Each structure stands twice: as structure tokens, then as C-alpha cells.
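Standup notes
- HV: blocked on the assembly model, inputs below
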Amino acid sequence: MMRKVRRKFPDAAALSITSLLDILTILLVFLIKNVSMEAQRLTAPENMSLPTTITNQELIDNGLTVLVKVYPDEILIGTDNLRAGSLQQLMQDASIREIIYNYMRNEASQIKLLNASKGTNYQPCLLIQADKEIPCQYITQLIKIGAGASFANIYFSTLQDQFWLQASAQQIQ
Amino acid sequence: MAYRPSEGRNQKKQTPPEQANLVPIMNLFMTIIPFLLSIIVISQVAMVALNFSAAGAGGGEGGPGPGGSGIEKEVRVIIMASSGNQVFPGFEIRGWEAGPVYIRNAEANGNYNFVALNDALIKIKSSMQMDNITLVVYPDVLYGTLIQTIDLCKLNGFPNVIYKPATVSYGSGG
């Protein structure tokens, strides 16, 4: 007579990860949609406190941005964050201003070449990201350089805050 | 009469469908999703556009308004940071028909009184119906103050904010 073996425990059911996979797929699509390379250029830089604004203007449709980051101790230009010098050097050293001018001029001429070759109508836009504690004289200098290098559209990067005026009202009371 | 054998007899024994191996794709997702989450922007980054004029060139807008005298009116908001000869930390508004407006930081615990500036801009907009406003900024004004002033101008119906750095002139002044 054959002995009947009874299992003590039933087989563990395989964990179904299909629903988890569905969630992850949706999440992945959402994240890929939101994270674009252009958005990366417009994110708030680290170690920089941007000023707050209520208004939020869109970049012109055919705008191609050239980025300038102004930190209290250095100026970085382009998406590659090329160091152009310090704020003091910007005001005192003409060669630093020339480096920045040449870079901007080169970027603007490349956009024009792109327009000529592809029949597009891209406009060079200068996007300045600066710390809110920086005196305006440095920003003015950069605007002048940008204007000289054919940048007709100048934008400032800010953080959107609907309540900064109310916060300001509380400060003065 | 003989019937042909049923087709079901020839079929092989059905096996349960094999479950796809999802482990590699799960590994991929577990790598990509934390990476994407790390680079996603949580804070809302905005932008403020600026119009600026060449020295003395002005905004170059269209013709004068209805019933205008032909001379384009210019309202100037002057932002100052330091004290000096006729200069004080705060705002000064010139070019308004009602006369100049002085908003001093000394009357607002040493802070820029953006609320008073906001009120003045509302009144200017309602009385003068213009789209242009000029900002004259002294060099030592902080960038944050400049941007918040531009923000208020745009909020109050002045889409064309013209930026002019303050120029220091020597000799006889007005």
C-alpha cells in the first residue's frame, strides 16, 4: 500500500507584480513627459536663491535661449557652465567682458546660421539666472553685453510665488 | 457508420501559459524612476521678460493715444538703494499727472514698500491708460528688488517695462 504524503503547507502563491508594473509604467510615462532637456535648462540652479514673482511669462515660441548664471562669486555661461570670471572682473576687466561678448555673439550667429540653413526663424533669447542678492550693476553690464551681441529678448529666471506681496506687507507692518 | 475520430483526441495536453519574466524590466524601471524623480523640478520656475532701450531711444511704441498731444508720456519708477543728494532708499515715481510719488524705506521699517508701490501703480494705470513704464535702477539696488518691481509693473497692466540704468551726471542738474 502506497503511503499518502500530505503536504504540511500549501504552495506559496507567486507574487503578482503585474499591477505594480502597470503603476510603474504610468509613472515612467509621466516623468518622461515632464522631464525634458529644455526644462533642465530652465531649472533653478543649485546654491542660487532666485527672486520670486507672481507673473510667469512664456518664452517666445521661436526662441532659443542662451543661459547666463550669475552667482555672487562667479559667472557661468552656456549650458556647459563655462566659467567667465567673477563679478568684480566683469566690471574691471575688459577681457572678461570680451569673452562673454564673443560667446554670446557666437551663439547668436549660430542661431542665424541655423535659420539660414533650415529656413527657420529662431530668435536668440538671453536667459539670466541670478542670485537675488546681487547688485543690479552686474546685471546691467550683462544686459548691455547681451544687447550688443544681438540679443533682443532678455528673460530673467525667477521662482513663482503668488504670495510674495502679502509676505512683503507683513514685513513692513 | 463510423465517425472520424474527434480532433480533440489529437491535441496535446494543454500546459498552463508561461508567465513572462518581468524581473529584467522591473530592474530597469527601478533604475530609471529614481533617476527621473531626482531630476524633476518641484519648484515652479517662472520667467520675466524685459524690454530695454538704448540710451535715450525710448520704447518706440506706436502713435499717440486718442486726443493725445503727440508727445508720448513716460512714467518712470526710480529704484534707489543708498542715501545721498536727493537720493534715498526706496521708490520715486515721476511723470504721473498727479505729481511725483515718494515711497521711502524709512517709513516701512527699512524695507522696500512694495504695497505702496503697488497701490501707486494701480492709480497710475487707471488714470493714464498706458502700457509702457520705465524703470530707472541705481547700481546698488539688489537684483531681487528689481525683479519684484518689474513683477508689480506687469501685474498692474504695464506689459512693456523699459529698463534704464541710472546715469550719474555732473554739473547743472534739474
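- HV (later): unblocked. The mean pLDDT of chain A is 85. Chain A touches chain B through 56 residues (CB under 8 Å).
- Next: hand off to the docking folks.
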